[in-house]
Amino acid sequence: MKQLSRFPEPFSIDTLASELREYESPITLYLSTAIATIFTVQLILTIQWGSPSIYATTGFLFLNGPEIAWILSPLLHRGPFHFLANILLLLLIGRVTESHLSRTRFLALAVLSSIISIAALAAFALEFGSKEYVAAYGISGLVFALLGFSLVHLQIHEEWNEPDALVYLLAICAVLLIVFEVGKVIILQDPLQVNAGHVSGWILGIVFAYAQSQEHCSVLNRAF
């Protein structure tokens, strides 16, 4: 693993902000705009319907308009904290990761991780949950996919700047969180203690990074 000495020194918030502004990351920005727009619609519907919470409004959408709800599921969020945490992490991690991938590959990773993470959440809820219906949504599967990708890719990438270093630290935090959740599963004998969407996205990101690291990776080269 990389040593701490490879981190840029001294670490500066001003330098971090300046370098982030220099990134061209249209896909991340378009996706973040779409998420913010959808959340605004969720908020408006919550007010108009007199719903007790955005969470309740979203559940109502899945019950009464499942086709639309499932299509939009990666863009939906259960409340302000869920929305802010995901969009802020996406804006940081997405901007950095997009600079290490072609736009086609970044878009492919975004689409695949969104689909796979939502499917994993739904499958776990159906298999181990007690409810008769499930609602799985949120963009955190993509966030964890980007962290999984960064964990591997930045090991190979020789030169780091402040944004790279910060994303790598977040990638390590993601590993610790997943280990903690898996430990809870083992101790409590409850599979729902782990977020299947996070883990599936994280694994996909790692696989994607290893595939890209292979100079003659025929699958990625042919597809993207």
UniProtKB/TrEMBL annotation:
Membrane topology: Multi-pass membrane protein
Keyword presence, Isomerase: no
A GO cellular component entry from the record: membrane
Any Pfam family hit: Rhomboid
Gene3D superfamilies found in the cross-reference section: Rhomboid-like
Family: Belongs to the peptidase S54 family.
Protein known as: Membrane associated serine protease, rhomboid family
Organism: Halogeometricum rufum
